[in-house]
Amino acid sequence: MDLIERALEFENRKRKSLSTSDRVKISREAKTLILDLNQIYKQKKDQKIMDLMKRLTAIKQKVEKRLKGVPLIS
């Protein structure tokens, strides 16, 4: 259950005025948490774990969208 506590702490962390390297770290940490939670979910099939993975995925997608930037219109 330590992994779930880490994931919840990650979810509640503030994400204001981050540098690019901070965004990369957050994206990588989210990815590892999601993959580790997925291993637990495969065994237990607990819906709460799936909901947590979905929330972490949403955070990861927002950070990655900001990393990629706005596409230039030609």
Q: Please give the alpha-carbon distance between the first and last residues.
A: 50 Å
Oligomeric category = single chain
Q: Report the average pLDDT across residues.
A: 88
Category by helix and strand content: mainly alpha
User: How large is the radius of gyration?
Assistant: 14 Å
Count of DSSP H/I helices: 3
Using brief descriptors, characterize the structure shown.
mainly alpha, about 70 residues, elongated
Q: Can you lay out the helices and strands and say which pair or pack?
A:
Elements: H1 2-12, H2 20-44, H3 47-68
Structure description:
With 74 residues, the chain is mainly alpha-helical. It has a domain at 3-7 and 21-66. It is 78% helix and 0% strand. The chain has 3 helices and no strands. The chain has helices spanning 2-12, 20-44, 47-68. α1 (2-12) runs antiparallel to α2, α1 (2-12) packs across α3 and α2 (20-44) packs antiparallel against α3 (47-68). It starts with a helix and ends in a 6-residue tail after the last helix. The mean pLDDT is 88.
